[in-house]
Amino acid sequence: MADRPAGQNKPALELHVPEPRYRPGDKADFSYLDIPPAGAQPRPDEACDPRETTPLVHDLIRVLGDDDRAHGPWDPKLDPETLRIMLRHFSMVRAFDERMFRGQRQGKTSFYMKCTGEEATSVSAAMALAADDMVFPSYRQQGILIARGYPLVEMINQIYSNKADKLKGRQLPIMYSSREHNFFSISGNLATQLPQAVGWAMASASKNDSRIAATWVGEGSTAEGDFHAACTFATVYNAPVIFNVVNNQWAISSFSGFAGAERTTFAARGLGYGIASLRVDGNDPLAVYAAEQWAANRARANKGPTLIEHFTYRAEGHSTSDDPSAYRSAQEREEWPLGDPINRLKKHLIAIGEWDEERHSAMDLEAAEHVKATTKEAEKNGILGHGLHQPFRTMFQDVYEDLPWHLEEQAAQARREREIKWPGEEPWA
Amino acid sequence: MSSEVKEPAAAEAGTANETGRRLNMIEAINDALDIMLERDPDVIIMGEDVGYFGGVFRATAHLQEKYGKNRVFDTPISECGIIGAAVGMGAYGLRPVPEIQFADYIYPGLDQLISEAARLRYRSACDYIAPMTVRSPFGGGIFGGQTHSQSPEALFTHVAGLKTVIPSTPYDAKGLLISCIEDDDPVIFFEPKRIYNGPFSGYYDKPVEPWKKHKDSVVPEGYYKVPLGKARVVTEGETLTVLAYGTMVHVAEAVCREKGVDAEILDLRTLVPLDIEAIEASVKKTGKCMIVHEATRTSGFGAELSALVQERCFYHLEAPIERVTGFDTPYPHSLEWAYFPGPVRLGEAIDRLLKD
């Protein structure tokens, strides 16, 4: 360096700012993606050294082939009834998303987020876990709640912030919480749930419990410091935890290149921490199930954490506040080479003679009717903006276990304001 | 306070007896942690260097040896990881007591504290709670320079859902820490490291006397609590009220003694929840109020105290409320004693309060 004159770099340095391949109006072409054939990926032993997963972090674990049949060592060999249950969950999630999205457009609530195209990453993964395994989801895993049997009416009550909302109207729609379903309270702050899941898993291990933790994060949020902290803690303490990185290619308007995807995979990151890591076709429900089951068995056997990158595509906008036609090609969704998870499972069940189009249509109709009826039931408890659903005092409760004097004073102020602004309208519980 | 003391007479008289050993603040904190590890199998201690080594200030000495690595363990150097993992442990049902080595290094964990620990009970409507106590050495006066001297308490008192507690004696350190660990709300427990080994008068050129000579170093053995939300009357007085916490309690006491001022000094002990009744009663009695803290002035906790006193004691005030604080600069190294709110700064404020 000393013998090098200052300011003489040749050529001049250049800043690389990633750019997605296709913008609005462009023709999308995913032929550059290397999609390996189903069944071709090795399945290491669940107790293996993390290094044995090295080939898998740049590969793509796939089970369902173009012939709609299951192939290779990752086939979880699920019985047809389990597959039909999975399909029903998928159908319900999609019907629910459609209805709630419409509800937001009709002004019944302020906000909603769909998970269209990513249903397998939550439903299939959740089905591979035990009911008492703790999940720390992000905001796009409504499929877990549906797979775990959480009542739809409670989900809608929360979305409408109505008088039956168990979270008392405090939380933005879809930020669910259910201790009974081992579903951790969703936070708006991205990636914070990752070190929390590790801490929960560490606690379970320290108590010689048998329960494990699983957490979900989008690929965009892996750029947060919490991702690094969580991976480090998980590997240091050999925590029984599963990191599900849902790589749906988009973080609002930023493509995955802004989380580092141009140079490596997200699964490869896990390997750098010494964490067993798998990269999975996230639209292949059987592959997702198999990977989650592999990771769960590994964690239960004290062999430590696993990171799974679910390679998928966010088929819809980021949220009801987002219009993806402003930043990406409208063709991407139809050109996405891994297809649609629901359609793939449906075709598989038909191919093995366990399903047919009539039953499928009837199932979709039944799901839509069920969601519609449940929505009506929930609407009896009110919708956002129609009346004051929660007693004002609840605004001050649960900040602390007990109400301190300053909150008592502020609650009294709110009560006085209520009498002026909405005389006689709401109970003061 | 005396109602919680097992040996009140001994504590008041400052005499050690068979149960009232004399401890410095580190030993008292170690004792509190030891007792809570013993009493509650869900208490765990984690942090950088807290395990085998026993902590850079020795606060966790011998605890890993006694309770095992499942209960007391070292962590990676990641404050976000430490606090985030503690939130998850709390959700499981443990009662974690994480340590942040210096308050100056708590910032990487702020998102987990502010967005998660503080709000978990509220946002989940009690589905999940964060019953954790974050211990962290804080404050200056030790030539710690910019990153071993800060007093960031106002960042935490501003966060709904957090409690902030600061002891100023070994007796309180143990009793308050036990209360914090048993409390189901997340607590920030700031330990004034300047007074770990002995109270500090602010007269930096005079020798420091060790805790062993101070009455509040008599620390009963076994379990006792000092309740959160209750201030301690350090000295009773009629002329003016001093509101202080941590190291500044001792500085204020020394300066008032030196100047012969009949001051009523309140050690707030808990900033949130605050003992507003004690403050109000004292200021209404004296009519004059001096607020003292090491932290920088602008938007410091003193501003909140000043506003509360003004709102509640306006017609009793005989002089403007005085705030004696650190300057609005980063904490300097070589100019420490020019920065530190010491006897001259306190003395001038007292003179202004008493001039009529």
List keywords for this structure.
heterodimer; A: 429 residues; alpha/beta; 5-stranded parallel β-sheet; two-stranded antiparallel sheet; 7% strand; B: 356 residues; disordered N terminus
If you had to describe this structure to a student in words, what would you say it looks like?
- The complex is a heterodimer of chains A (429) and B (356).
- By secondary structure, chain A is α/β, with parallel strands linked by helices.
- Chain A is built from twelve helices and seven strands.
- Chain A has a five-stranded parallel β-sheet with strand order 1-2-3-7-6, sandwiched between helices.
- The model of chain A has no long low-confidence stretch (mean pLDDT 96).
- Chain B is of the alpha/beta class and 356 residues long.
- Chain B has 13 helices and 14 strands.
- Chain B is globular, with a radius of gyration of 20 Å.
- A five-stranded mixed β-sheet of chain B has the order 9-11-10-13-14, with helices on both faces. A four-stranded mixed β-sheet of chain B has the order 5-7-6-12.
- The interface between A and B is large, with 46 and 47 residues.
